[in-house]
Amino acid sequence: MEVSRIRALRGPNLWTRHTAVEALVRCEGDELDLSSRPEFETHLRQLFPGLGQLSPTDRKAPLSMAHAIEATTLHLQIQAGCPVTFSRTTATNEKGVYQVAVEYTEEEVGCLAIKLARDLCSAASHAGEFDVEVAIDQLRGLDEDIRLGPSTGSIVNAAIARGIPFRRLTEGSLVQLGWGSKQRRIQAAEIDATSAIAESIAQDKELTKKLLHAAGVPVPLGRPVTSAQDAWAVAQEIGLPVVVKPRDGNQGKGISVNIATQEGVMTAYNTAKSFRDDVLVERYLPGSDFRLLVVGNKLVAAARRDPPLVIGNGKNTVHELVELVNADPRRGEGHATSLTKIRLDDIAKNRLKEQGLDENSVPAKGTRVILRNNANLSTGGTATDVTDDVHQEVAARAIAAAQMVGLDICGVDVVCESVLLPMEEQGGGVVEVNAAPGLRMHLSPSFGKGRDVGEAVIATMFPNGEDGRVPVIAVTGTNGKTTTVRLTSHLLRTHGLRVGMTNTDGVYVNGRQTDSGDCSGPRSARNVLAHPDVDAAVLETARGGMLREGLAFDRCSVAVVTNIGMGDHLGLNYITTVEDLAVLKRMIVQNVATSGMAVLNA
Question: Where are the alpha helices (DSSP H) in 185-279?
Fold first, then answer.
């Protein structure tokens, strides 16, 4: 058995409309018909109990090693938590050689899965050993590392539901939504309309406080400090207890709250100083910590955030109670899961000390043991949805805070006893505003109803049901593609549209050549669809790119097939007959939008 030419099909392709990894599998001898080796499947299932049914796509064909690799690749991804369903194995006209295609959601995960499947099947074939749990953990870890985080993912999923195309521009969270002149961009929970100035203001907590005070939004008293002694002096001026935090920071890093002693204030200053040079001391506001999410000019979600804590049972130590809480499958190490594991670090140990405890103490039954003062999810806190409870005056202050800073998506942190009453009536206030706020507490709160905040972002970016698409005309065939593309592009330009065009001569945007050479593949097409000056795209779609990578678009407005002939267009990737070529060329016809049309040479 040999697995070669593993490649990722990044768009609709010969096998499926989904992204898929494709490989050539060469089988020899009894690998061509596994019915003669029943012990192979027995051993494979012993190694991989999660394996699904083994069966060839063509029921009349014998079950080969290629089919085993297909099923193993699919189910390794499924066991790793990837939402994949499609797989297919097709025999070529070369004896013993098969094309295996398996859906993937993350390209690197799909490519690794087929390599692990090869190793697993090889081990089963030779009665060897293979640690499938390690393989699944490797796939799961890779998937968590490279997939979009929950905030960006929720926005992208909302875009997909609306029919808006997307393209990930970096390995991080920078994503293009839509095409050409109708495209928008997001990065995490931040949209392209948000100015760098607004983000800079949000990072400066002292400036933010001044602006909010000017807008009539209640904020706590306080000011920046330059030393531990200065911090204590300010604490005495404004009254204890106080909050000490970095002047610009995020995720609760370096923040100490409810500090009521000189020693505590000085320690808190040094903690904040380790994160940022500029430190802020503010009056501590009693009450609960609420996060209000403002998108555009609306409050779309609200959550009460509680600090990481454990409840004593009179039996287990604090350390054991933390381990029990962290065993919750919703808790992970980073931001990929709805909750983060609680850390028993120096900050937690100091907080325990304040309560007269350490990690080996056994708290009495029902005792709440607080492990951090701040309630950020990133440090192990929990969130309870309170969206339906927010008083209209509280919502109005949150919206005013976001608009005063200039943020299109804004996380407004409010401390007050309850969101059922106006902040002014209970001595509450806005303690912070956040650019690019985390959305997972609203998507999957620890308690209460999840909110579709991704859709709220999409509705702001693409109002009135817009789908962010420009017309795409795809042209394929044996001869005449370039001429047809040029004529079509010219006709569209005469109607005042800025046209992006790809063909075998290069890439042209609004009449200007931006690339040269054979540009009839998906890479050039994606470049055109990413260009902000393109109102319509006319794309020559050659067979090589379709076979190598799939289509650059999920669907087109018009598909044109000029003709299908023999010539020099046969022989590539086992396309050996005119019938095979017709199956390949019909890809663009199969991916025409429901409101579009296909133009065929009859």
Answer: 196-203, 205-214, 228-238, 262-273
Q: Which amino acid is at 141?
A: G
State pLDDT tens for residues 154-171: 999 999 999 999 999 999
Q: Round to whole Å and give the CA distance between 67 and 99.
A: 10
Distances (CA, A) of 446 to 36, 269, 337, 382: 53, 32, 11, 6
For residue 586, give the amino acid letter.
R
R_g (Cα) of the chain, nearest Å: 30
Percent helix / strand / coil, the chain, rounded to 5 = 35, 25, 40
**Ramachandran category for residue 222: left, alpha or beta (phi over 0 → left; psi -120 to 50 → alpha):** left
> What φ, ψ does residue 586 adopt, rounded to 5°?
-75, -5
- How many secondary structure helices (H) and strands (E) does the chain include? 20, 28
Report d(CA 224, CA 253) in Å as an integer: 17
In angstroms, rounded to a whole number, what is the distance separating the alpha carbons of residues 333 and 340? 6
> If 0-12 CB within 10 Å is exposed, 13-18 middle and 19+ buried, where does residue 424 land?
middle
Nearest Cα to Cα of residue 294 among 175, 219, 172, 198 = 198
CA-wise closest residue to 392 among 400, 380, 384:
400
472 phi/psi in degrees, rounded to 5? -120, 125
Closest by CA to 233, choosing from 281, 286, 284, is 281
Of the candidates 451, 407, 446, 453, the residue with the CA atom closest to the CA atom of residue 430: 407
Contact 408, 457 (CB under 8 A): no
Strands 309-311 and 222-225, how do they pair? unpaired
- Of residues 404, 432, 405, the one with CA closest to residue 215: 404
Q: 337 Cβ partners below 8 Å, 6+ apart?
A: 330, 331
Helix (H) or strand (E) holding 447: none
pLDDT digits (tens, 9 = 90+) for 314-362: 999 999 999 999 998 888 876 666 788 998 988 888 889 889 899 999 9
Question: Among residues 454, 451, 460, which one has the least CA distance to residue 301?
Answer: 451
Strand order in the sheet with 174-177: 166-168, 174-177, 184-187, 190-191
**What predicted TM-score, i.e. pTM, was given to this entire model?**
0.88
Three-state DSSP state, 317: coil
Q: 356: alpha, beta or left, given left = phi > 0 and alpha = psi -120 to 50?
A: left
d(C-alpha 355, C-alpha 349), whole Å: 10
82 and 18 Cβ atoms separated by less than 8 Å: no
